[in-house]
Automatic annotation (TrEMBL):
It is found in: Cell membrane. Belongs to the FtsA/MreB family. Cell division protein that is involved in the assembly of the Z ring. May serve as a membrane anchor for the Z ring. Its main location: membrane. One of its GO terms (cellular component) is cell division site. Self-interacts. Interacts with FtsZ. Residues 24-225 form the SHS2 domain. It comes from the Bacteria. The lineage of its organism: Bacteria, Pseudomonadati, Pseudomonadota, Alphaproteobacteria, Rhodobacterales. GO terms for biological process: FtsZ-dependent cytokinesis. This is Cell division protein FtsA. It is a peripheral membrane protein. It comes from Profundibacterium mesophilum KAUST100406-0324.
Amino acid sequence: MTDLYQSQRAMRAMRRAAMQRGVIAILDVGTSKIGCLVLRFDGPDGFRASDGVGSMAGQSAFRVIGAATTRSRGVRFGEIDAMQETERAIRLAVQTAQKMAQIRVDHVIACVAGGAPRSYGLAGQIDLDGAQVTEQDIARAMASCEMPPIGEGREVLHAQPVNFALDHRSGLSDPRGQIGQQLACDMHLLSVESNTLANLIHCVKRCDLELAGLASSAYVSGISSLMEDEQELGAACIDMGGGATGMSIFMKKHMIYSDSVRLGGDHVTSDISKGLQVPLATAERLKTIHGGAIATGVDDRDLIELGGESGDWEHDRRTVSRAELIGIMRPRVEEILEEVRMRLDAAGFDHLPSQQIVLTGGASQIPGLDGLAPRILGQRVRIGRPLRVSGLPEKVTGAAFASAVGLCLFAAHPQDEWWDFEIPADRYPSRSLKRAVKWFKDNW
């Protein structure tokens, strides 16, 4: 526990130091693409307190001065599969972004898409005896939370206080300075597989970069794609990536649940490739230009030339109707949405006051998805795009870059976490996170 706590504090200190120097990089390592954004920070005032998800950690205004994307290599299901290939792709993205920004970056904040995330709800309570709530009291309340056994081979990625209650008053975002008898704290803890994080950390270090922060891809996509009212009233963000579909549920501007499905847009491409016997590159082109989720009567007459370079003229001149293409794509899209629906039902999403669901990510751009998704997920579904941030080039403003834009907002004003407070050494929970430190010890 002590090692994990201190290592996360060290990363937060490194992030603050990089922001004081004025420049930090954002690294989105996905299954289909690797994106890098270079941020320049202008100072502590530029955001209103209501922007983003709100936090007690302080905020900074920033501007994107460099951006680059490259095709991802060596990544499957959001996890690194071939270290050298991924390293080369990261180096290429970072160097291209540095060239555009005309500045060198040494510190990056990365996001994790895979790792089989699991959510836990924690609760703790302390007595105040009529004293004012101090930061040390908040630290003691968080330390009093009974930590669950997260299992061997898993690490804590986020440990965020999501609600404070002072006596009979609940729903407090920052109780410091108020007077009461008892202070209660609700926390959301997110754990992922340790090997997934260890591989990402090692790969970033091989690129001669220092890691100044880690975040869940589903979490940062929710930050960038959900509007402020949606974050407050309760909404789910479904990040449909290439190799995995992440989901996060927000309530009172905090993430309260996260999960993922190991299915994404690349599986739709693979189905097209196998069904039509075409290369993956051709299948991706067909999906992007001609694909869809709902067929109409016109699609039977709309013929698409497959093309090819096999040398067999008859084979290369084949055509397929758009209705056939949609018939291949739709079952996989329905499977992804049904898996997401099962996860949301297990999380108790139906009990939230708002049933809003926002689809984002590259695979959410399939035409007709906005008509198919409400039949499976519920009526309140919309396609979301990330918030517009200053200096972001037009080519990286689409839904596919929701996690990258969310990482920018996460870097500028992060949500407070367990390690932002001075937890007394004698207050570490006995069953807390002691097994969750090995990868920090090995890789820091």
